[in-house]
Amino acid sequence: MGSITVVGLGPGEFGLITIDSWERMKNAKRLFFRTEKHPTVPFIKDRGISFSSYDSFYERAESFDELYEEIVRDLMKRAEGEDIVYAVPGSPMVAEKTVVLLRKYCQEKGQTLNIIPGMSFVEVLYNRLGIDPIDGMTIIDAEDFDKLPVDMPTGLVITQVYNPAIASDTKLSLMEVFPDDYSLCYIHKLGMPDESIRRIKLYELDRQADIDYLTSLYVPPQAKKAEFDITPLKDIVHILRSPGGCPWDIAQTHESIRTNLIEETYEVIEAIDLKDYQLLCEELGDLLLQVVFHARMAEETGAFSLQKVIDGATEKLVRRHPHIFGDVQASDAGAAILAWEAIKKKEKRDRQLVLDGVPKGLPALMSAQKLQHKAAKVGFDWEDCAPVWDKIQEELAELQVAQQEGQPEHIEEELGDVLFSVVNLARFLKVDAELALMGCNRKFKNRFHFVEKKVKVSGKDWSEFSLEELDSFWNEAKKS
């Protein structure tokens, strides 16, 4: 098996090719260029260096991803029996997808791969624009805008803006993040005698007359937005709770407003279910107010402060994510959960029993599901869903017997068993029982409102309608 050596043609001028890369190209038995469309190529030809290029692959490929895959497959095949040298524009390790693929496939197949460091366009760009890389820089291929972060904290270099069509797509993608008239640096033929670096507005990008394979862009970072600040909310709660503030707010305790916290939480859940993001924003604010309010009351007694709440949550997140902030490996979501649970177990050493840690104030359905989940962790569970269905039928039969006996306490007990079994089924079906019932309640409410409107429009009283007539309204509501 032969080897593959990758060298760089530098950012533009022939003199920017490294000596090491030049020597390897001169001595190569077989030399391949990704493309001849590079300003150093005429100088290389003048010096008698022969090579083959992959320019013909560009014409038949349907996408750049397909193109790069075809080039790499061809290189791997040619290297099976001989040593080859592969030359790419710029530096092999900067914005060169074929090299990324070569590294992956060579490692998988045990193919020898040598990558020779080279000078990239980035060094020239730093010099021309007076940018210090210590401030950070993001480099992205124009074809990869689906990977572009929403908020860019650094300057952005966009390479491979090959033609007006790609420039247009790039413009539209940038307009999702930046204003239409945002100022960009349009870069053409960087590092060449006739290079052009000019300021343009974002909306003008695809109107440039000289867009070609030597076109790149530099997008300066946006001015930093104001940092998140909870101080105004904290200050208002402080004023409301202080002497001379609101009598109602001053009178409250942790116990007196604890149900408010539950209500606000469910209103957040409802906004999520409705996919109403304006409402969600409002309800999250109400929920945050509850957190700040409770923290303020605790601060007044010297128990803890809001900062302590924030610091505690931050420290816990870091501590429970060692696969992110430490040296634990977690290749998927399942492994991450295992790491999380292992750390929780160490932190909650005061929990002596399996079912400890389920809050007493939880809604009944939610509590049942958590109790079952904890029991299942130690193996107290069925292997599949079939016995759960049987258990539901068994409990329903016992409820019918209790109803026939007519003892209220026994009926209540058996009804509880039915509900507990149904929650178990929800757990096996990976459905949150509490949310499922909330959704059903909401659906009932909407349909009943429909029926109510029908009754009001008719001008008649509820008692004037038969159950069949009301049921027909209900069925109509189900279709609407």
Shape: elongated
- Binned strand content: 5-15%
What structural category characterises the helix and strand content? alpha/beta
How far apart the termini lie comes to 69 Å
Spatial sequence of strands, sheet with the most strands: 3-2-4-1-5
The overall strand count is 10
Give the proportion of residues in helices: 40-55%
Number of helices: 19
| Order of H and E elements | EHEHEHHEHEHEEHEEEHHHHHHHHHHHH
Specify Rg, calculated over alpha carbons.
34 Å
Mean pLDDT: 86
Uncertain residue segments: none
Largest sheet: 5 strands, parallel
Can you describe what's shown?
This protein is α/β, with parallel strands linked by helices and about 475 residues long. Helices cover about 55% and strands about 10% of the residues. The chain is built from 19 helices and ten strands. The strands form two sheets. A five-stranded parallel beta sheet has the order 3-2-4-1-5, sandwiched between helices. Strands 6-7-10-8-9 form a five-stranded mixed beta sheet, with no helix packed on it. The termini are far apart. The mean pLDDT is about 85.
Provide a short characterization of the protein structure:
With 480 residues, the chain is α/β, with parallel strands linked by helices. It has 19 helices and 10 strands. It starts with a strand and ends with a helix.
Supply the key terms.
five-stranded parallel sheet; five-stranded mixed sheet; 53% helix; 10% strand; 19 helices; 480 residues; alpha/beta
Can you lay out the helices and strands and say which pair or pack?
Elements: E1 3-8, H1 19-26, E2 31-33, H2 41-46, E3 52-53, H3 55-60, H4 64-78, E4 84-88, H5 97-109, E5 112-115, H6 121-129, E6 137-141, E7 155-159, H7 164-175, E8 183-188, E9 196-201, E10 215-219, H8 231-241, H9 247-251, H10 258-274, H11 277-300, H12 306-319, H13 322-325, H14 333-347, H15 364-377, H16 386-405, H17 408-428, H18 433-458, H19 467-479
Helix pairs in contact: 4-5, 8-11, 10-11, 15-17, 16-17, 18-19
